[in-house]
Amino acid sequence: MQRRVAEYISLSASVAIVGKAMTTVSIFGGAGFLGRCLARRLAAEGTTVRVAVRHLDQARRVLRASGLERVTVFCADVRDQVAVAAAVAGTDAVVNAVSAYVETGGVTFQAVHEQGAATLAREADAAGVARFVLVSGVGADPDSASAYIRARGRGERVVQQAFPGATIVRPSAMFGPGDALFTTLAHLARLLPVLPLIGGGCTRLQPVYVEDVAEAIARILADPGTAGRTYELAGPAVYTLRELVTITLRLIGRQRLLVPVPFALAKLQARLFEFLLPSPPLTTSQVDLLKANNVPSGTLPGLHELAIEPRAVEDIVHTYLGGSRGGA
Fold first, then answer.
1. 308-311: long-range contacts (C-beta < 8 A, 24 or more apart)?
2. Nearest CA to 173 among 135, 207, 216?
3. Domains of the chain
């Protein structure tokens, strides 16, 4: 009975937004890796884009460097109900692309991915926002032993409860200029004579181009039939972590010794990085994510259902790491 009521509410939300143009979209986390791509994609088609961030001046610099001088920037922490309410007022759609990979002070996974997501969804619903998209991740699990993965999974659940008709987007590991995947691997390979292979490098990943994810969200916002659905977004091919490291080394013209590192040791090293460095090259959350294969379940819609042909690692990564397409 409860499931039927939820389905009815979701359907009603879909019907209510038919024909409503998404003229104003607020992107929380809009100065981040995915957020910038999405803001650029929406602005290019004439959408009024609001970017909500925690650090105003830093975000403005990042957005200007990305050619996004004309977007409106709000200072709104998802943990601040008043600021969130102001940022969503008068907007047609809200995208929650906020992400925290490291816990520092009050910025905990629970506070950001669970409580913050719930606050944003509730305020968007109260403001009469037509569409809500939560960016989560492949493998999100409310019962996970990992605090990060658990908060992601619980965040999905509270958003669906607070905003009937919310759409959940679960990208696999995203790549593109400035990514945390190939760019970080290349940086480490240039600095170190030896590269660690976490968990032996056997974890399977299906990386997705960040621009394809941004396009997917734009199409979701434009299609009322996507309301209430969950999408898993991944690229066209599956690789082991070892294969991704090898691709990176070929592109930057380096040869490095690859040494398998147990997950426990990698997590200890990541904790040290988090303690010592403001921008750690490896976090405990990333180690947790590598403990399981980062590939879609195969039971949920993805890029193809949105009429998007995913672009391959081999076609894109050489454009920002150097080397040639054939070298990948």
1. 308/212, 308/215, 308/216, 308/219, 310/208, 310/209, 310/212, 310/234, 310/235, 310/236, 311/209, 311/211, 311/212, 311/235, 311/236
2. 207
3. 2-174+207-236+295-306 (3.40.50.720), 183-201+238-293+312-327 (3.90.25)
Give 194's strand partners. Answer: 257
Q: What is the pLDDT of residues 45-68, one digit of tens each?
A: 889 999 988 887 777 787 777 777
Name residue 175's beta-bridge partners.
209
Q: For strand 204-205 and strand 239-240, is the pairing parallel, antiparallel, or unpaired?
A: antiparallel
Q: Is the pLDDT assigned to residue 11 strictly greater than 50?
A: no
Whether the Cβ atoms of residue 285 and residue 103 lie closer than 8 Å to each other: no
Q: Find the helix packing angle between 241-252 and 182-191, rounded to 10°.
A: 60
Indicate the pTM of the whole model. Answer: 0.89
CB of 134 within 8 A of CB of 155?
yes
Tell me, rounded to whole angstroms, the distance of Cα 213 from its chain centroid. Answer: 9
Q: Half-sphere exposure of 150 toward its Cβ, with a 13 Å CA cutoff? A: 9
User: Does 16 score more than 60 pLDDT?
Assistant: no
Based on C-alpha coordinates, what's the Rg of the chain? 20
